[in-house]
Fold each of these.
Amino acid sequence: MPIWNPRIERMPRTELEQLQLERLQATVNRVWESVPFYRRRFEELGLMPEHIRSLEDLRLLPLTVKEDLRSGYPYDLFALPLREVVRIHASSGATGLPTVVGYTRNDLRNWSELVARVLSAGGATKEDVIQISFSYGLLTDAFGFHQGAEEIGASVIPVSAGAPEQQIKMMRDFRTTALAGTPANALRIAEALEELRVPRSSLHLRWGMFGSAPWPESVRARIESLLGISATDNYAISEVMGPGVSGECEEHKSGLHINEDHFLCEVVDPDSGEVLPPGETGELVITTLTKEAIPILRYRTRDLTSVDVRPCPCGRTLARMARVFSRTDDMLIIGGVKVFPAQIEHVLMQVEGVEPDYRLIVDQVGGMERVEVQVEVPAALLTGDVGRLLRVQNLLRERLQNDLGLSAEVKLVESRKIGPVEHPSQRIVDRRRTEGGERRGTE
Amino acid sequence: MLTLTSADVYYGNVQALKGVSLHINEGEIVALIGANGAGKTTTLRAISGLLSPRRGKVIFNGKAVGGLPPEAVVRMGISQVPENRRLFGALSVRDNLLLGGYHLAWREKRAKLRGDLERVYDLFPVLRERAQQLAGTLSGGEQQMLAIGRALTSRPLLLLLDEPSLGLAPRAARAIFDAIAQFRQQGLTVLLVEQNARAALQIADRAYVLETGRVVMEGSSQELLNQKEVQRAYLGRGYRQVWEEE
């Protein structure tokens, strides 16, 4: 696969670290000078910019949380006056005030370059016809991929999000070779293809670059086989930029290469905030190194991952982060046991005959917590041999108990009854606190 | 080729550089821009050995430079052209150039210096014409050419230039910048300090912006030319150097 910027993506790590240090120091000097929010935090900590003398000193800097961005709504964290800003994006604000992010001309140029790297790593070149099926609007995904695709010189089709039938028609008519969108969207398209009996041979699709929400390997396998493509994961977070933070290389799919010349990534213990060594799983914390409009120090993403600094066989020296399946706030505590939706997914995946779509319902009945896991199975299993049905049910119950310590009722339901979701948190129905209320949706 | 890591430099008790880090790759032209007193010249001196950083590292081709005397630094291949040129006015142009190679061993000298003189004369033909003239009688631009030429005869790998266009007429300044841009083809690496930020950014690959002893921005010259803060602070609104308009 082509490497978009070999000089950077294959840079020896000592050189990369020097570059990171220079950029970190310049960023710290700039926020200290021009962002009152950070100036106050530095003063509270008794910190001066010149205390940052090495990359290890990163941990001296204050952490930034989503609440900080919200309390600065809309423009307080900007390091430059608004007249220098040429684009503004925002999160959906589904859980409160949206978080606003601005881009200068240089920020946009860097953003395009970084998404170009992600698309190239995923297999795309200037020969490709890239269909953008993210919805265009305030969110960062569609515009990020759009610019990146233009940067590599591909032909861009800004279809935006829409009905699977429409996406399929576009793909056929325009000979789309690469699809960028959410994994849930891709799965819907893939399933519609099967339902509408559209022959795979009428499509030219080769690559899929999916992100912005967690998707398990089982979903990847299904998308890849139904669409007949190679699908790569990438990581986006609107508070620091949008897509372009990291992406998998198509050849190895063994972690997402972080664009470390623009982002410094740490993994911290979500409870104590302590920095964890490479390889350990914790909360991803990102510091921007080149952002002009809104430089952000140590942003707590709430996403759980680990970082691998060993070189990848693809030739890139950029560190890889593990695919993100859970967020710190996805964690459920059931009967004193910590459970993440991704762990449940993992258990379900290992039981034969079970489909990836499921729902977890937590309830409180007379002071006792009651958990029910509803899982899709093919209709044939439901109408077939009862003995086999019971075996699957028992196996699931045992695995949940043994692997996760979760005592749950298991209910098997017909395919498509639950269906794909945009975010794993939507699979959890927690009736313990809010009567019948669903947990928050995706952002 | 050269890396400076978190360098702190003091003049007495006054801290002039506060944790400055930068790097220069072989064959690059890198510019330092910033207002008067921002620490540009101090940074050059920390590299050439005229000043020694109290903390931080200066590494040139894998070897530590910090704390070495200037002549040892010259031998490693770093040569500085000081602001105000510092020529020997009562000596001829040719003798000034020969002095640049004073640190070479006797035996090396003859053969090498002859070639070096030719190279300098090719770069600045006017110096060949005035080879026998006293340096003190040259114009400002010619003196600057001579100062650069003298630094080149010490066969540097890295050339440090401090305000080469200072006090020069537009035409002379342009000749100097054109010559610096040519160094790239000769495989020479350059660190350039300039008040004339626009001219510097036009010939440099990358640049660092210094403010009160700290690096506040770094990036490709193109990026910095696009940066409105840089434009306002260092390039001036609608500002064009006179020499560009000729």
Note: Residues 1-68+196-246 of chain B form a domain with the Rossmann fold fold (CATH 3.40.50.300).
Amino acid sequence: MKTLKPLVFSLLALAVSAAQAGSLLPAGAADQQPARLVAAPLPAGDFERQPVALAWPLDPQAELAAPAPHVAESREYWANVDAAELRTGYNLDTTAPGALVRLSPVGAASGKRGAMAIDPSQLRVMRDGRLLSQPASLRQRATAEQLRAAGMDVSDGTAVVQLEPALGKGRFQLQLPRAEGRYLVHVYEPTSDVVLRAQADRQRVLAGQAFEVSAELRQGVLGMRGARIEGQLVSPDGRTFPLEFRGGKARAQLPEEAGGGPGLWEVQLFAGAASAGGPVQRDARTAIEVARPTARLAGGYAFDAAAIGFRLPVQVAAAGRYELRGVLYATSPAGRLVPVAQAHSAAWLEPGQRSLSLPFGPGNLPMGYGAPFELRQLELKDQTRMGTLETRSVALREGKARMHTPGPDLAR
Amino acid sequence: MRYLLLAALAALSSLSHANTGVAFVHGTGKQTNATADYWTSTFVNNVRGGLPNSANYVVINCDFTKYMWDNAAAGCLAGQLTTFINNRGITRLIVITHSNGGNVMRWILSNPTWDSRYPNIISKTVRVNALAPSSAGTPLADAVIAGNVFEASLGWLLGYQNDAVRMQQTSWMASYNANWLYGTAGRPALPKPFRSVVGTDVDSAIWDPDSYCGGYAENVGLETTQWWLNSCSDGFLNCSSQSAAGTVWFQDIARMRDREPLSHNQSRRACFGLDTILRADMGS
């Protein structure tokens, strides 16, 4: 009887709140909401046409929180170098001992011979124009074949070497006596305290909207004085849009027609500063999802208490497969709102006023848990164009306060 | 006490009536004979030998050079798993993934409405044993792709065709984990257990016979690539990436013979007793 009581009260509470309708809560500052819709064309490809829905229980003790946008940290930089420079000795500026240097041949310039595959044993290191003893100046050597076998998908003819850490830091010259053509030099300093950090202020953005990027070149915990940061926003198909940094921040404005293709947009950053030990360079990148606003939530909902499900009207501007996903929070016997179930539902929708259901199912509600409910982390996605269109961290509250009943509280 | 006993008996009874199968899901690359070219038949045979019916296995061959959601990747995986489930009458599916194969399987578990075949696969799956999954990407992908930014004469990335490597950049996986995938910190749990085996180091000393398991040449490269990674890594992935989604089943040194670490290439081979542990897992 003890275990039945909470069930009876839960069912009573559900019955009271059956067939409720209402409006979504206002979007919060962190939520994404399309201000306009676009009738984007249907991309090429085979897409699922059948409606599909699935829900599963969550651990009520789990702490759910939206992850912060990725923080990119770079201790590396790249440079294009021609053969003449490498034959005489290319200046490598390092800020810490043991820098790794990757050399990759680049395609030949018109009318000239292309760069040859690099034999790492042919690389020499000089300091102040004086050749250092070989092979002691380089500790680690690896060929393209060895790197590929390790899963690093480097280009043909690449070689990686590591400067002997005992040589310390500062300026070296890297020499390849038989260099021909052009090379890409990648310098990575795993133990350096000079780091370029970059972060976008959000995980995702809609076409036509803007976001902010923060970047700082630091040495230890302090920003480097006189550091210069340049950047660009790059689309998946290679279009670039310059970013202007002021005070370590830049505003990135997405074009109206952005989004819709596979892959993410990138913020690419290039930083430099003069330090007591010589010039310092760092390059960094971070990614952001961009979607075209092809549909949005219409603002209302209906709640089926018996099925523990929601139906939400959706305004659709472009034919496609759309998905609703969200987390059901229920009230525990101790009166706390906790996550109890995750639901997804998708269907093919033509333009117009449509709707999508989000059934959680009574089977996913733990014994003793019930109304009031909240629908959180609600997302409307365009599966055909791989984009997140609308998000609500807290979308709605539903159901009257439940009567408190003694019973096991999984969330305690 | 009586209830516990009854529950245990019920679980045992359902297990004895179950038809358990195992699927081997490879990592990045396009495979046509993953048994020979990716896993080795020794590994596959040793693991499937732990099944009540050792014929209930499938070795997946798909194109995992594509984005995880691509029809050639997750679509292909869903097709081969569905055929396996239907043809062999599988009611309990254990999925063993390696590296990026974990991301493709996690795509299916996290996006059940993407494809009408996904829900049945999810319902049959009892767990995913993810060997060295690249759940948070790898700085090695960052390094390769960033180099391509400078190398491609036609523009950004246009010369580089491997979408799976692009996808496994750390900032890209952070985006996919935040927007499309479950199981990482703060995100909802996956509908089925996803537990990882974490490789923590690489041995490539020429005098150490352990360096030769899985191929000496492969481990030599991993010693170099490890410099791009944290002190805890398998030469291709940081331990933090391998541990980012689901739960950690075990770290290599906790369970491998003589506390040997598993390099990224050894975690798909019969090295240091890994195959024996997975074989024992087939019966539970």
Note: Chain A touches chain B through 75 residues (CB under 8 Å).
